[in-house]
Predict the 3D structure of the following.
Amino acid sequence: MPIVVNTNTAANTASFNLNKNAEALRKSLARLSSGKRITQPAEDAGGMAVAYKLDSQAKRTEAVLNNHQNALSFLQVQDGALETVGKVVNRMGELRTMAADVTKNTSDIENYSKEFRELQSQLNQVRLQKFNGISLFAVTGGTSNSGTLYNNASATYNYEDSTGAQQTESYSAFSRVISTHPSGISSEGSISLNVTNLTFVLTVGGIESGASSVNLIGLESTGTSSPSSGSGINASGFVDSITEISIAQFTQVIEKIADARAENGAEQQRLNQSYELHQVNLVNIEAAHGRIMDVDVALESTRFAKNNVLVQASASMTAQANQLTQVALTLLQ
């Protein structure tokens, strides 16, 4: 190779290698400092696109998990209120049984009726309970003036009357639907949360001879929010006397409350199963995202050490190559 002054090929080659190794060292530094294998789309465009979609799905799954927990809280608060309703109705049934004692006179029965009517008022207040401003219960018909949920779909309830015959009763069913899939498509994941119709639960028909239809919260099953008086019903919609309701009717009310709590428990169990499913999905999605985006620290540390040595060697050789033209100057002296 001739000795020249204008062109220093060795220095150019060393400089090129220095720049290449410096760029590789910069990438290693970026990956190790960020913890990401892909620090910019140009490094792996396809992988970056897949990871971006997986990250979005993971965030939506986290939001769905939060919705599951809120729905579970809704059902738990609702069940707590239903438990109170059950206790109140049990006490009312106890009062009715004591009023049936032949040793009780009219004054005694009136005293039982006083507590009975107070408990009716309490049931009427329970139906207005809310969770974060959302009604826990519903009533049939009427105008929504207190955040109470009204008419939705029709449903039927099967039961045995006092003679053992199977009977079917129609009522208005209410529900709120929670989306349980990150896609937001109801067919891929949704759960219906029952909003208990207390008008139906606390209304019983004449299941004994001569008995009339009675609603324990003062609302008629026909859907009017201002019940008419008469047939033992006062202007407030409550029974004037505890004897207007039979013990058999209380049994039917208790069965309805038990069914409502059973449905609530079934929905809580389904929510728990759905929650666990999406927890597992979230773990797997995050793992898939990590396989694409996360840097292998051990491997990248080895590359960093190699590139660091190469940069230093390239820099040293570039300095040495720049001295080669000094030979030509020596010949000219």
